[in-house]
Design goal:
- This is DUF3040 family protein.
- It comes from Actinoplanes teichomyceticus.
- InterPro entries: DUF3040.
- The chain is mainly alpha-helical and 91 residues long.
- The protein folds into 2 domains: 36 residues; 53 residues.
- It is 78% helix and 0% strand.
């Protein structure tokens, strides 16, 4: 029988092992530990493209300040998507 501290430590070790090597845990425990597969950030690229089109439309209408702000927003979104894509590819 384990005391509270030992149970807490064992649970912490189990969580760490599941996070570090879920395949091993699935083979040894027979459990079904689902490992989420990362997906490329395609939605962020689509959002960046939509925002860029909005910036072009605002620029065509003549609202230059709003167009510049929206273009900056689109650039930030595209950079975030590129960063997440880089992290996705390095896994």
């Amino acid at each position: 029988m384990l005391n509270k501290e030992d149970n807490r430590r064992l649970a912490q070790l189990e969580r760490q092992l599941r996070r570090d090597d879920p395949d091993f845990c699935a083979r040894m425990g027979g459990g079904n530990f689902s490992v989420p597969t990362p997906r490329p950030p395609l939605a962020l690229f689509v959002v960046a493209a939509v925002i860029a089109v909005a910036a072009v439309v605002l620029g065509a209408v003549g609202w230059w300040i709003a167009a510049a702000l929206v273009a900056a927003w689109s650039l930030v979104t595209a950079v975030a998507a590129g960063y997440r894509l880089h992290k996705f590819r390095t896994r």
